[in-house]
Amino acid sequence: MRDKIQAALRSSKADYTEIRLQEGEATTIVYRGKDLETASAVIDVGGIVRCLCRGGGWGVSTFNDRDDLLTKVEQACQSAQVVQSEEPIELAPIPVSEARITVALKHDFRGISMAEKKALSEEYNNILLRRSNKIVDTTAIYQDAFSRVVFANSEGTFIEEERPMITVYLIAVARDGDNVQTASESVSGQAGFDFAQGRHELAQAAAQRAVNLLSAETVVGGQYTVVVNPRLAGVFVHEAFGHLSESDFVYENPRAQEMMSMGRRFGRDLLTVFDDGSLPGLRGTHKYDDEGTLTGRSDLIKDGILVGRLHSRETAAKMGEKPTGNARATGYRYAPIVRMTNTAIEGGTTSFEDILGEIKLGVYACDAYGGQTELESFSFSSAYAYMIRDGQVAEMVRDVILAGNLFTTLMNIDAIGSDFEWSHSGGRCGKGQGGLPVTFGAPHIRIQKVVIGGK
Amino acid sequence: MDILKQLLSEADQAEIVHVHGESTTVGFEANRLKRSQVEETTGIALRVVKDGRLGFAASSDETATERLVTNVLESATYGDEVRLAFPAPQSAPKVTTFDPVISELSIPRMVKIGQEIIELILEVEADAQVNVDLTRGVDHLSITNQAGTEVSFDRSPLSVSFDISRIKGDDVLMMFGVVGMTVWDEDYLAPVRRLCAQLELAKQSTSIQSGRMPVLFAPTGALVLGLPLMLGLNGKNVYRGISPMARKLGQRLFDDKITVVDDPTLDGKFSSASYDDEGVPHRRNVLVERGVLKSFIYGLKTAAQSGVESTGNGSRSLFSPPSPSPTNLIFEAGETPLADMIAGIDQGLLVQNALGLGQGNVISGAFSNSLSLAYKIEKGEIVGRVKDVSISGNVYDLLQQVAAVSRETEWVYSSFRLPYVLLSDMNVIAKE
Predict the structure, then answer these.
(1) Which of residues 326-345 of A touch B (CB under 8 A)?
(2) ipTM
């Protein structure tokens, strides 16, 4: 295969050419309620050729049939020439790399029978179903995927990487008359079958929470001091702030650059936010990104001040900065774009008790149940929440939706917990091309003056 | 060896689906042509029923048939028990979904359309950053099963999506639109013109106070109301017991101004076709008629589980087994002209776009959305954009009393046709 790839690269008439080929298999087991909905195995192979013509633009060809790479390179070149650009696209230089990254899974899921995977999912599903007669519906998903990706470019880089991923995702739906409540738990990692085993407590937690939510009152809307748990804080910083740090948002937009100018104060001194694609064991981790750039840590906000942003080779060249290893693609159907990897609010020094501290009336919002942002505006649903009364976590409430303006909200973060954690739930980022594995990290944080929708 | 024969030597029923697609995309970023992409997709998906159990497997490697056959049979060994029968051949309505004007649309023409869109927007808002993606393709799907069904059809989807961001200091306006069709529509710029009109209106800012007031939902905003119903009408959620509409067929659930139809038989629409993805003929399904719940949507499997017939709503992508999905979802027009609706509002809110669509406990009907674009209506006129406003409520309560539904409807997000909907008394939360 290597010879074929290199011959195809040599045949290219473009200024820059890259080829990424992928082959993989995935097993999915899905229980819905009492039924086994899916037990399937799929095979996915395909590739992408991307060319850059300096007088033109990007030309891309994607395909399933990998036999005729020469034709695909030609197609991509032709496409690149169609694009007429006044301003040539440049790529920031990176070292040529040669690497072969293999994984040794302790308990390789490829060697496990479908029967065993099914049995595990069924165990979790049974826990969900049997927790209470109020549970009317469940979902228990087991998924594993193993793929091999080969990346090569016309500069001489050649990287082969094995990418395993295993996920358990559990949902319980409880119902009481017209009142229907949902709770979920998940874990996901680049790991073997053992990672999916022994997760019974997650099923217990999801089922119990769905039932508890039935008797929770809808929160009374208004402005509150809000304590956010690590999982929700991590999603918040990814969605509301992280996407603005992706340079494809600012690199051709002077007004966005103004908004995101380096040195601007984004938070109080205690706020530090970073992205790091090189941390072992996390979902967003790879040694190289999908352009062959080494990954690493990028500080985005340091001590409250905006100090960095995330780059692909193209955005880095355009802005005169260094590539950060954040060019990522959701599989072979897509050219890489600037994406986060593992993004976090760095841990602080305040204990959870002190964060609750003097709050007379507030909301403790836990886990994300969805969120959307449009630059400065954000809207997040927490999966469950509690009122805070006189510094104590009090009764559970539901339908807590945090909405507001990013800039004021970040400035209103006034306490950061010492209990930092990476969330091992299956975080995915949907920017542009659908789900890409990412990890969220944060401790508990406290935010003043958050508007919460409710009744 | 013939795959069907091979499968039937071990299984009782078998289905083979081949997909083949080619598409071409041109993409503009920040008002400039940036990339061009060709895409070729092939794949094969198998389902079998063996000893009453359903198996599924798929591959994008068309040469891997041996492993695929092994996988689908193994899947059936552990698969779910369901009394599903793949359909025998049935005639279907003739629906036009292929147009050579689209399949042969040249790249220079696509580039020109993209430029037209950007120019229209920049005329209204010179500082806007516009991204446009145009994709035209040819999709071929063929379905063969042991009952004798051999269905194949070609579609020529064209999709044009555009998003706009306008930043002034920390003030941001983002808008998004997408137009989809399978037969060339000369009036392809109409949605862009509508968006430009909204941009124009948004130039004036004003404020609004929290409280109860009439709320007018524009077609894009009316999705806030449409999404919970879409989930509630899905036969899968009904079978699973989580739809608030379960066991309420024949009951009056909504105001009689509400009629909801799923119609895949419209020529040239984005989600139209003669057959669904399981080879069941498509048909027009009235789901809610003048407020009365008439039908849910089903595919073969959910229909079998529920003891009813498929409504022709089996929908699939290569790597997932079919499941019920609406096609072109239509909220029928009402009788009131839009101008009269606006003119009749003394103080109220026009909801154009909501943030967080689909988040939260949507299926329960509850929603709480902050609004990315909303206008204040005062003394019968739209007076300006209001920011930091959110609305909340429950669709199943609110739609029992609808003040008016507009005569005008618009296709939004390719597959929805919605009118303007006026609710006379809703809770609006504004930040002081």
Answers:
(1) 333, 335
(2) 0.82
